[in-house]
Amino acid sequence: MSFEIAVLKGDGIGPEVTDQSLKVLLNVASKYGISFDFTDGLIGGFAYDKTGTPLPQETIDLCKKSDAVLLGAVGGPKWDKAPNDKRPEMGLLSIRKMLGLYANIRPAILIPALKTECPLKDEIINNGINITVVRELTGGIYFGEKGREIGANGIEAYDINKYNEMEIRRIANVAFALASKRNKKIVSIDKANVLESSKLWRSVVEEVSKSFSDVKLCHMYVDNAAMQLVKNPAQFDIILTDNMFGDILSDEAAQITGSIGILPSASLGDGTLGLYEPIHGSAPDIAGKNVANPIASILSAAMMVRISLGLEEVAKSIENAVNITLEQGYRTQDLDNENYISCSKMGDIISQNIV
Ligand code: IPM
Ligand code: MG
């Protein structure tokens, strides 16, 4: 069995963490008698410097003909002054949109070996943390009309937060289908006491819930949700939310599971093609120093083999190797500032721990 993987390493720590995933994937491939054909594609600031655009057509074509896409990270201060439509982030937003990847699945699980990294008190995390954020990824304020004009009080800038019923219905369906296979509980997060788009969100989610009578749905305002996540994270199983709230709450969920350096994500659409990336960014401050945590990328690779390639056993073996490595006490700098190993060493050990 052979799989074509588009590898978009991107900027900052993207290349160094993705290299560790490739190492691990090559190792599982030899153990499980499969093969991966990795092809690099340009994205982000690096692509902009080389080609004048953060998402060259070649990269889009490469992704479309691949079985899955593994992405590192995009962005960095170097491109702060780039025109809006050429910023590295535009490369990422455009590839999500062009591939129709509207469903972003972000599991935030407190790995037992990392319990001491969790900033919450023991009594709060006694029941563990196992949350999956289902974030709408190709609509809302990220993609609404935006602009600037001169008003009576100087420059005005706006970003429109617009959702239609179809966009809400399809992401709600993803969340409910997932909930049916888990603990049958969804918290849908919005700001329906203020925002019109959230009112529509709430009513469409209600409508979808009628087809999933065994799933318990409740709604929560986003400000309260941000508080509840640190007050009692165990009350959440599946969080269904829009693009912007999902971006913010998934970083919060990441921190309460120990470090943003360990959380993976899958971006999916209606087809089998998926894009897999850490939820962290390009971390320019530590880029090139070989101290980043590659675990989010490696766990993204595990999600990729499970979801897009259908290789459950291989996915489990990667996740087990990560758990074993953490149980053995190995830490990168984000997890232990005094006693840490390098990014590449972490990749080596996880790779060796594949059984
Ligand atoms: C994420 C990131 C991106 C987003 C940025 C880099 C555009 O923060 O994947 O969470 O906001 O979606
Ligand atoms: Mg984010």
Q: Which class best fits the helix and strand makeup?
A: alpha/beta
Quaternary organisation of the protein chains: single chain
Taking all Cα atoms into account, the compactness measure Rg is: 20 Å
CATH architecture name of the largest domain: 3-Layer(aba) Sandwich
Summarize, please:
The chain contains 12 helices and 12 strands.
Overview of this structure, please?
With 355 residues, the chain is of the alpha/beta class. The chain has two domains: 185 residues, Isopropylmalate Dehydrogenase (3-Layer(aba) Sandwich); 138 residues, Isopropylmalate Dehydrogenase (3-Layer(aba) Sandwich). It is 41% helix and 19% strand. Strand 8, helix 7 and strand 9 form a beta-alpha-beta unit. The radius of gyration is 20 Å and the shape is globular. Bound molecules: 3-isopropylmalic acid and magnesium ion. Magnesium ion binds next to helix 9.
Strand and helix layout:
Blueprint (H helix, E strand, L loop, with lengths): L1 E9 L3 H19 L2 E6 L3 H8 L5 H8 L3 E6 L14 H11 L4 E7 L12 H4 L4 E7 L9 E6 L2 E6 L5 H17 L3 E6 L5 H14 L6 E6 H10 L6 E4 L1 H14 L9 E3 L5 E3 L18 H13 L4 H16 L15 H10 L3
Parallel strand pairs: 1-2, 1-3, 3-12, 5-10, 8-9, 8-10
Antiparallel strand pairs: 4-5, 4-11, 6-7, 11-12
Helix pairs in contact: 1-10, 1-12, 2-4, 6-7, 8-9, 10-11, 11-12
The site of 3-isopropylmalic acid has 8 residues, from α4.
Give me some keywords for this one.
355 residues, alpha/beta, Isopropylmalate Dehydrogenase, 10-stranded mixed sheet, two-stranded antiparallel sheet, globular, binds 3-isopropylmalic acid, binds magnesium ion
